[in-house]
Amino acid sequence: MIPEAREVHLSRKDRKVLEACCRSPVTLQRDLKRARIVLLAADGRSTRSIAKEVGVQPRIVSLWRHRYADHGLEGLQDKPRPGKQPIYTKTTDKRILKLLDKPPPQGFARWTGPLLAEALGDVDVQYVWRFLRSHKIDLVARKSWCESNDPNFTAKAADVVGLYVAPPAKAIVLCVDEKPSIQALERAQGYLKLANGRALTGQSHDYKRHGTTTLFAALEVATGKIIATHSKRRRRVEFLDFMNSVTAAFPNRKLHVILDNLNTHKKNEDWLKAHPNVQFHFTPTSASWLNQVEVWFSILQGQSLSGTSFTSLKQLQEHIDAYVNAYNDRAEPFVWTKKKVRQRRFKGRRITQL
Predict the structure, then answer these.
(1) What integer is the mean pLDDT of 269-279?
(2) Calpha distance 44→33 (Å, rounded)
(3) 281 contacts 142 by C-beta, under 8 angstroms
(4) What are the Tc1-like transposase DDE domain coordinates in residue numbering (predicted)?
(5) β-pairing, 208-220 with 171-186?
(6) CATH of domain 152-329
(7) More confident call, 83 vs 138
């Protein structure tokens, strides 16, 4: 049974809004039908005639006539619906975060989704994964950090960076360090063809070790060229022998040498007195990344040492020497691009020492 029709009285303002809604090409069909129902009802049309013209049931026309008569334009909007109650709430999220602050179960190195779900007891593992993704929490990735506690960090960093961006006139700036214990490993290697037809290089898991060498290297900041020698050990005597060869390569030149805080690099006052043209500059504690030769060691590892095989220690040394010669033929200086070097503390990060 259709309820008694309610009279609809439109204000001039409401009529303009509803007519604009009917003319707009982006109006939703449901909103368009409701606007037409109210406009026709305001013109005095009956419920059945409106239903026939708009293409809806008479009870629908009666509903929107009553809704507009009682609440105006706001009555034409859908009422909020309760919907299904969520299984998991913010309390669940807080439980997950609280659990992540605790150490993982005994015997495990880290939390995983299944371990979290098992520890919570009433939370599905899929929700755990969705929560971690939404908060950008990666349980697998690991980030290492090195925080310098050097009280003179700013002064030392400024000294080193100043040599890079504004080297002293008529002086040579060198970055010196060692890459110790480079292994001469002999592995079977070659091309492998997989069952799907794909070919790739590979090497055997087993290897034969033919000894190690320590590489002393000096990078000339202005040109990017390398001076390198091999040694069995990395003691003070080997370091000073290398520095003798470096000074011989730049006779009668003022040398500014950037070094890290290795013990063998320090307490060499007697040698420095014998070589007044050489001045040592030390990077801050735990900040050897400021030494540009570390960048070159990374290049050496990636382009020359990774995935190679050597049948003797001599072959390894000759291989490195050949790479150094090839590198020097196309060497270019590294460009210092970082504008500021700061000693940053871990503030606002959930890092605790266990």
Answers:
(1) 93
(2) 17
(3) no
(4) 173-317
(5) antiparallel
(6) 3.30.420.10
(7) 138
